Amino acid sequence: xxxxxxxxxxxxxxxxxxxxxxxxxxxxxxxxxxxxxxxxxxxxxxxxxxxxxxxxxxxxxxxxxxxxxxxxxxxxxxxxxxxxxxxxxxxxxxxxxxxxxxxxxxxxxxxxxxxxxxxxxxxxxxxxxxxxxxxxxxxxxxxxxxxxxxxxxxxxxxxxxxxxxxxxxxxxxxxxxxxxxxxxxxxxxxxxxxxxxxxxxxxxxxxxxxxxxxxxxxxxxxxxxxxxxxxxxxxxxxxxxxxxxxxxxxxxxxxxxxxxxxxxxxxxxxxxxxxxxxxxxxxx
Length: 284
Hints:
Helix content is 10%, strand content 36%. The protein is mainly beta.
């Protein structure tokens, strides 16, 4: 899930600016085909297979692609084929798509739904996005800790001489994610020095994915993520832990989120940012 590094204007009320920022974040979560809309995750094999409520058959090829096949005959209408489109073009017959590893997938339209065809390492899957998912229709905001000034600290970014490839585990057993660590961010909380491995932010700046003592208790067990703005010329960065957010896997069972890099654990409980969200899909 993309988070945007932001800064608070001098003299602005921190609660008001946080509220405006979080309102925008929740609006993104509510989008019809956003993370709250997920209703299924189907892993593909090289054997063509069908899946509940989806037209056609789907299979992973052995050379980096996915094939989708729909068929019509003189005895049937083209309704099933018409339900399935890629870039506005109806799929009738066999088409091949090539999703990129670790990137957002190729979207296939099935009525009001979207099927996202994703690649994770050498595995391929269908992620179904339905605006009527209960995780979306029952969404009433993300619970968060009160905003406190003590959680806004100045840190120091130390880039690595050379960016370092790293491998992290995922919430899906056996799956791995591959990133490039660009350096470390050092900061102090309650007199305790913290050091976190930093990844490039998707929209600039840095991304810090970490666990702390609240993880698995008051916050999601797989950790949370914080977007940090671009470092100043002297390496200083603003670490505003009030803006720590959940990854998509906190909201749905159908995400494939990474776990934090090894050692990215804050040694004090971070009672700031987003807390564990309700899961209507698990209680309905």
